[in-house]
Design brief:
The chain is of the alpha+beta class and 107 residues long. The protein has one domain. It has a two-stranded antiparallel ribbon. Strand 1 and strand 2 form a beta hairpin.
Amino acid sequence: MGNYLFHTKKFDKEEIFIGFPVKGDFSFIKDPYSLEMLQWDYNVVEQNNLWKYFENHDVKESFMFSNEINNYKWYNIHSGASWALSMRVMERIAKDGWENFITNYDQ
């Protein structure tokens, strides 16, 4: 498994330790193809400082024909469906934060 940050969180009156993967570490994803795809695309967003773009993106709009992001070197074997999924994941991380993404991620 990857790197984890541990912190306490209060549930009712009890404090427990919770481990979240370090921001950008997708090693918790079981499917190797999804892991590789999301890790690659996350790194593109991070390296090119695209978080504001995803944070401000209208959820009703498609990413497919966006001139603002199509010129970056995204994961090289995207299908239309994987592109949409990956861009929506980046959008969720940008809008809700890493911890919320991890908490709500469903394998």
